[in-house]
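Quick one, tokens below. Sequence please?
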């Protein structure tokens, strides 16, 4: 019985991964992603600036280092976190799941996403401490998680949520003091 359950879970994970990776987002999904980025910016930027969490400025990095940051951020956190927190935890569009269950799984995924950041700073990524404990950072992470969840549920594709996550992290690191916060 346990082996059958493990097999079913494995098949569901494989199905979700295949569908999320192979689903090509419609133009409307990309438009939705742009709107989600604008929505995020209209909330996160004023809050971050008001509370002093965000500070506009460019880090003193070589072009090579900037390209490295942009490239690395695509894989971690964007692709890695979106696969785990959206694709593996949330039902795909092709699954017959009620709206109530989608919202429930979205809330569970969001809660895990938020808690993951302080736990990550306390364990695997000490450079994230104290930034990942900051309430403004955690609020912005929550907004990011909401935007990525909406993009994933709307598109059924991994890619819009990856692009949203990637852009937000890169802009924070390179233009709003994130690099300095994590590297001082």
């Amino acid at each position: 019985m346990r082996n059958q359950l493990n097999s079913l879970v494995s098949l569901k994970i494989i199905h979700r991964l295949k569908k999320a990776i192979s689903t090509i987002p419609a133009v409307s999904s990309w438009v939705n992603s742009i709107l989600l980025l604008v929505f995020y910016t209209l909330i996160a930027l004023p809050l971050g600036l008001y509370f002093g969490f965000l500070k506009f400025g460019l880090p003193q990095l070589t072009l090579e280092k900037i390209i490295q940051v942009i490239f690395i951020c695509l894989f971690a956190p964007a692709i890695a976190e979106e696969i785990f927190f959206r694709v593996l935890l949330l039902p795909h569009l092709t699954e017959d799941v009620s709206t109530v269950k989608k919202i429930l799984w979205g809330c569970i995924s969001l809660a895990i996403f938020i808690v993951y950041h302080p736990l990550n700073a306390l364990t695997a990524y000490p450079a994230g401490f104290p930034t990942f404990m900051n309430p403004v950072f955690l609020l912005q992470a929550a907004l990011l998680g909401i935007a990525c969840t909406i993009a994933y549920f709307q598109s059924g594709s991994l890619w819009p949520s990856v692009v949203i996550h990637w852009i937000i992290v890169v802009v924070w690191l390179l233009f709003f003091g994130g690099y300095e916060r994590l590297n001082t």
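The radius of gyration is 17 Å. The chain has a mean pLDDT of 97.
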